[in-house]
Amino acid sequence: MNKNAQLLIDQGKMLPLMEEFYTIQGEGYYTGTAAYFIRVGGCDVGCHWCDVKESWNAELHPATKTDLIVDNAKKHSDTIVVTGGEPLMYNMDYLTSKLQKEGLKTHIETSGAYTLTGKWDWICLSPKKNKLPLTEVYENANELKVIVYNKNDFLFAEKQASKVQKNCILYLQPEWSVEKKMTPLIVNYVMKNPKWKISLQTHKYLNIP
Residue 70: which domain range? Predict the structure, then answer.
């Protein structure tokens, strides 16, 4: 990558774009809502069960002008979800400023492992054991979504819940490859601990992106 492109990426004026698409939000608080997704390449959190491992290497995804990304997004929806990879590896100030100037709602899905940049209408924090969130992300999260792969993840979820603000909405979501095994355990856990809600990957049931 040449120095000029790297400078623009550092400024958030270009981003390694893996994909962008218009679909229905499948998880969490906004499940069922039409939204335009911007998936940014690059992630070093390294969850072994990640279902978009092809997003990890940012060099595989073309550096794309952020203005072009915004132009595409505004044609489809007023709700824009920025995801990854890990989008907070990049400065999100320019992207969210441009989106909000167009009157678009800005949502982010993040592990919280990097400095919180950008102005967000909704922050979905999905913490990972490999690289825990920063304090500032805990404090600003609107929803906490913990992926449950095994029984130990319930303990991890409670530790994470103790760090977010009181009005943050708490979700437990079964990891897809163990969904049939873990969902009954999550149902039982939520019934005993009703501060939690269940999130499912409904887009996979609907067979949409």
Answer: 15-206
